[in-house]
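Hey,

The postdoc asked me to send both predictions to you directly instead of through the lab channel. I've kept everything plain text so nothing gets mangled by the mail client. Protein one:
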Amino acid sequence: MTMLDGTNRTDLAQAVLLDDPEFLRAIVERTVQALLEEEMSAHLGAERYERSGERRGYRNGTKPRTLTTRVGTLELLIPQDRDGTFSTELFGRYQRSEQALVASLMEMYVQGVSTRKVAAITEQLCGTRFSKSQVSALAGRLDTELATWRERPLTAPSYPYVWVDARYEHVRVDGRVISQGVLLVSGLRGDDGRREILGVAVADTESAATYQEVFRSLKARGLTGVRLVISDDHAGLRQAITKHFQGASWQRCQVHVTRNLCGQVALAKRASLAAGLREVFAAPTWSQARAVAGRLAEQWRTSHPRVAEQIEEELEECLSCLAFPAEHQARIRTTNGLERLSQELKRRTRVVRIFPNREACLRLVSALAAEQSDEWVSGRRYLDVGLLTEEHHDLAVPLLAAD
């Protein structure tokens, strides 16, 4: 509908919503509600109770819906039609603008984009500029939401499998650029067999104290019933696992082991070594795997004695998964379950290169982890936990002693 001065009322309402934060919420709510009714009339070709030969349908009540704006939360009643074909253009357009705005603000804080650049982006998207204080306030609310998510109670009755992975990012701390560990912990829910991101942290992961603090926090939030922890080999991490998950087993990531061993031989020989390791890991029982590993070690003893020694002494750490259901083994022998999240982190942090501080790094990791966790929890079952019986727990290989 067009006003006397030629201004489209939908555009005017959006301008009010986006550019005048002092406008009273109640007035905005009434204005938007009136626009929704006008959209429905245009959609049906007739006003409410109007008899018209051009009518294309009939109203069928309303559906309550809230719309969060910068002047407050609007309580709206979205008109419905009998055929279910009505979709409000104003609501969708406003939501897209808000989502784009929030995304752009997040980009500044999680990717180190300057305030000036974000101001230009928001002006282009929404027709308005935001001050640095407004941007900081919005980011502060985002941080509060992410902190609440990181500290949420873990509600599953048990988490029999826990995966731990770490990657490293460059972060500016006290004026210096240093390497900081991004620690990711996921778990299998013992009630429905779905995965969940349990925790994230950004810290100096060279110390066992860092891992111990993460595990202590997870247990305080409700992590229990852990039977197997899957991770890469790290002295501090192993110490923390041994201390906090006594009675559980430790599975060293087979992919990481393969990479480490293949990195010690010439490029032309790596395919052969990798094939031999796959044969070890494909063995159906612990004894068969040990026999294959022994033969593989002999093959490499003359040319690469150190590799042979590691095969004999360290591959046993990669075989704990064999004590658990065969249907589970492909997914509990590595930390690859976290690979998608790690790849997304890598894609985003490649743009950032250097985070301005730990908080910015943690913000990005938390936002992506929360999104991934929601997808997992609401998605399909990852493993059938009904196959996991006490028998498997009793057969599990015990954790190695702390160094």
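Protein two:
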Amino acid sequence: QVADDVVTSSFRSAGQRCAALRLLCVQEDVADRVLDMVIGAARELSLGDPRDLATHVGPVIDGEAKSKLDRWIAMMASRGAVLFRLEADPPADGTYVAPAIIELDSARELKEEVFGPVLHVFGWRSGELDRLLEDIAANNTALTLGVHSRIETVVTHIAARMSHGNVYVNRNMIGAVVGSQPFGGTHLSGTGPKAGGPNYLRRLALEQVVT
């Protein structure tokens, strides 16, 4: 379940959804096994023309986005941090970026949003959950947070501690349903009424007095 949700959240729509998964934090006790499954699932992805029904990952939005992503991946590769890069042969005339999985030394290391099919992973030690949550909160973005756990007290603790506008439990992090899952963030991820929430329509209205 974790592997499927991670791949979907990271690479669907070429990782360009605002709620896409950028950072995966896995407890060290199970990290190797989980990452093996995630990489195995990512290896089966098809990069190419989105008009082809066999394609899983299409191009990024423009050349500037592609260049920025290519530079980031190349820099991390020079450090030996790239754990996986999809071997693909996409059309030459498109802004395609092959999905990548990059290992970080700390959750604080990710200081900017890498908007594309790039997943960053970090292994945290049992007993250091609160420290991990502090490191995640330090980047000051708080749109979506995903938690996979069968321990209800852990889920409750994380949701209460973090200020993210949306917390998803044991499911993927993309595809909120407007009207039943209001969507919005806090801090650098935006303020104001959630899309699909009870106050959203008022945000779009401008009161006027006509004489």
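Summary for protein two, as requested: The chain has a mean pLDDT of 89.

Thanks,
C.
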